[in-house]
Amino acid sequence: LHFQRRFLSTKFTSSADVVICGGGISGTSLAYHLAKRGKKVCLFEKDAVGCSGATGLSAGLVSAPIFWQDVGLQTIAQESMNLYSEMAKSSKFRFVKCGRTYFATSMTNEIVLRRMYSRGIVHNDSVELIDCQSEMLARWPFLQTEDIQLALYSPEDVALDPVALCQHLAATAKDYGAQIYENSTVSEVMLGDEGQVYGIDTTHGFVETSNFVDAAGIWSGSHLIKSLPHQHVQTAIYPCTYSYIHTSKLPTGAVIDSTPIFNDLDANIMLRTTSFKTLAAGFAEDSIRPLARQTNNSTTWVHPEPDWNKFDPNLDKLIHRCPMLGNVNHGDLICGMEAYTPDKLPTIGESSQARGYYMMCGMNGQGLSLAGGLGKLLSEIICDGVAKTADVTRVDVGRFVDLHANSQYLIERTPEVAAMTYSNLYHSHQCHTARNLRMAPIYHQLKDAGAVFGEIMGYERPLWFAKSAQSHKNALMRGQDTLIGKPEWFDRVASEYEACRERVGLIDMSSFAKYDITGPDALKFLQYLCSANVDEPIGTTVYTGMQHQQGGYVTDCTLSRLGDNKFFMVAPTIQQERCLVWMKKWAEKLGSKVHVQDVTGAYTALDLIGPSSRYLMQDVTGLSMTSNEFPTFRCQEINIGMATGIRAISVTHCGELGWVIYIPNEMAQNVYDKVISAGQEYSLQHAGYYTLRQLRIEKFYVYWGQDINATVTPVECGRLFRVDFKKDFIGKAALEEQLERGVSKRFVQLLIDNHDKETDPWPQGGETLYRDGRPCGLTTSAAYGFTLGCQVCIAVIENKEFGVSAEFINRGSYELDIAGKRFAVRVNLHSPTLPMISSEHPLHYRPTQ
Amino acid sequence: QVRRKNTRNSRWNADAHLRAHERTSNIEADAIVRVDTCQLAANNPIEDFYSAAKCLSSRAFLFGVYDGHGGQQCSRYISTNLFPYICASVLKKHEIAEYPSAERLEWLFSSSDGHLPNAFSEKHTENIVKYHKKFRASQELYQGTVREALKLAFEQCDEDLSRNALPSGKGIIDRLSAMIAASGSCTTLAHIRARHLHVANLGDAAAVLGVVNSNGSVTARQLSRAHCVDNADEVHRIRTSHPASESQTVLRGGRLLGELFPLRAFGDVRYKWPLELQKVVLEPFGHPPPYHLLTPPYLSSSPEVFYHKLTANDKFLVLATDGLWEWLDPDTVVRLVHDHTLGTITQQPYVPKSGTTLNEVREQLRDRAQGEKKTKKPIDENCATHIIRHALGGVSGGATKQYERLIDILQVPPGRARNYRDDITVIVIHFNDSYLKKYDNSEE
User: Fold this and answer.
1) End-to-end Cα spacing for chain A
2) What is the pLDDT of residue B345?
3) How far is A243 from chain B (nearest CA, A)?
4) End-to-end CA distance of chain B
5) How much is the ipTM here?
């Protein structure tokens, strides 16, 4: 009878709101969140829930939110933690709040820990910093702690049973009406007209659905989709090995069940000891192997061969930290597979290649810590269109373009990423693998001029210019900020800054996303998408945001009107894919006759900044560039020397006088040479992206992706003056409502006093701001203000109870906590007037209001 | 004590046995630095031959391995007589010095003596001169490609070999010539001119190129395809060139006419000549024609030629007869050569024995790393010997295990050894990094 029932059940046709592939932590968490919100969910797992894949093989360690530098990820991790503890209450699976201890032996990691501590104490005062060796020894006698400078105890980390957790999540989802099919694989995803998912074929039968979520871990993106060019969705994830030794308990009575997990940041190792077993993991880069990309055929989980030889460097460090470990049996070297992404952040959201095809994968070894919260975010995206709990910008699938899905690129990059599983990455972090992929045509000229490059979206962008050309390999890392003390680039950037303020500087901005928007409905379409009025005369450039329905920024951009229905749009680099998808989606929704073309790779952009830029532009173009002839916020097609078709836009993105010239790539070298030789007369100097950063933060320009994102509205960031309420646009209602209700968030500029740039920790963004001794906000980005002569940060102050009026802000006294050290700060609601030592003062910019 | 001495002696014996026919030639010209060769006999006398020469007219280097079957005569003949044909077919554009066709060849080394009986050599010279004229006269060929020239040289060489065995005007059959024609030879030949590598292959020997990627890993690129029943194209070629009525007999039991394993070869006129001719020439010498010989020829002597332009990533080329490929796959061979050139011993992944502690594991790993450094020099300096040692002794286990297996297999005397293994011939050609790097971007 049992057999018969099974047989009958194999031939079904059904329908669901959402079909999920994968019964690991990602799939079950999402199924739980969706089912709870009343969606009809079907989950297919090719093995048993929780058992196969990275989840089944994981050690079950959950990192507390304190680990993450990024606010969004902190929220996600917190959501995960909340979910799991709630689950643990209603079911009896192993859930031990054992905490975690991080060790630092170097100065850099000491600061990392101090910053972690600053984040931690805001929410939990039992976070501890320990710098006393005898105390470490007393607490953990089985460890060798002599060389440890600082230890951080984070009490909230959890060790749990991952399989039981998944099964409980699945069971709870079932109670809410979800259907869970085990031993069942998704064999095909079917796309209908317009590339919309309409059904899923599985070994159990056909399911009609318009939403499919790919939570298949290392198998993500391997599902057959016949109508796509590659027959599957291209994803920027790649499987790599991760290895740990599983052995017997340490021969000491000092280890108990609540002994914390140990992470030695400098040695890049992790140790989990309990009263019945010991797990010892290491993440040395050369011990990690990229594996073959999984295909749909290879559905069985094959363990990669464990390689003791490769694990050797880790073993050395493990035994050094825990000498007792050397006396236990060798145990098993477990070699698992996990999906890694190029930037160590997970991937969720709707793929641009198939409508209704959502991704939830690429957990980078932190699946348990993040999947609980990511499931909630993705359920919000599927149900409401926008994630409300946290900003998804950094984990959104749209941050990747095609090149990121290239196997060779991923093979080179992912072992490096996997090696950083327990490292904190800061905004300026530079990878040493998979570099020099996208380069401006003038890359080599810039390199010869001393450029130190930083990578963004595969693009090599000069961050600063050294005195001479950088030849050695380490040049890849010389663009990083330092956590403490003056960075290497400081003096050079000071000189670049001075050139931009006093003479003329040249910054390569080729990486910025660029689009041509044409078609009979272009104007109407953009008027509806942008919050500012873009119906300005031809030759005008408008700086505007694009809002989503809830009023938050989808992006900010400059739109230059080149013709009646022809616009040139420039957006932040990281928006290349996302903006395009957003515009195409709305063009289709509105039925607009509009054509959006991504021309990012077609133009080289040179930003000429500074008072002398006017004369330089006059020299190279032969045109009059006076403030009457070519005022700011204008665009015009011009010739430079023999080159034609150059789009000159008088917006510098940093509030200085100047032009960005967009040169067709084939002529870029010619024009560059021309500009350089003409610029000699004005002592033109190359500048890098860091100079731009110092310039714009001093002037209180907020940047999308760093300061503002989809969770911030123009009302909150003081950009209402750019919003035109006289027309209809996406998000208008939400903004009007917010105006009426008032806002509880406000962006401010912080000037840090008494900061010794040689010896004090440097702000990076993400520091806690205290108002009258109580936390009131976080910094979003930071730079050194060369004119103001101090560290300058942009911060957001939040007060949910009374809102943030100017009076509220001015009344308080403020302190900023940078890596545990408090600095008195002055809070500016508006940018200060910056003195110009020479020449004209640009009057065109209006700082944030 | 005695046992240890015995062990040492038997090891010494095994080493001596392996190295008896090894040879290293430092060439240091153009793309080639050094050539290692080694040979191990299983037949008595050995049926494998190898040779190397330089064509003075085109500055091309020629390397060949010849795997004989049905006697050593054919492969011995080919090892000395094939190169002159190739030197006679130098393309016009490659001719850098004018030499008479007989003086174009500079021998580097060869496993057989280069001398032929006088009567023979006269005829041979005559053949070459004739062929050279023919080649020069054909504008199409003379200005054609190396691929075509190699093909023609092979075919002509086989044709002459076969014609030599025919009865003379007086009806006399030369016994030696008949033996040469009746036996067969598989051949893999590398033609290296500057950075241009051509591999002409006939039969089941093979050429493998060792390519080292930028990340240090080495991959094998096969530059030949075995002409045997596993090669679907060959099977198709043979089946379609004979009437359908023969489809049951032409290939039987994986062999040509149920007898011959390689599907292309020099000599073997039993599969090439018509029945009547065989009755006259071969039967008297005890070579009966094969059954089902209906529509000869069955066997082709036209080689398959692969071209490869050498880059700085190409580190070495291995030519070896099928005796080697029976034991080792190309990936293992290139790994062996690569490790050998790096001076390390190829080792299997480490697996701890049960009961070892992590401290012991660490020590053992350290010992291995140390050992790798200490015994940095592999046992054999000659890379070809190194390959044969691993082919017979296995890649896994420690030195003791390896020697045990090696001694076991070497104890079998030549002749009887054929039941366990085939003759093995290996040529390893090491390329010049800096030469290839220098010319990586240039045309030549």
Assistant:
1) 74
2) 53
3) 15
4) 61
5) 0.78
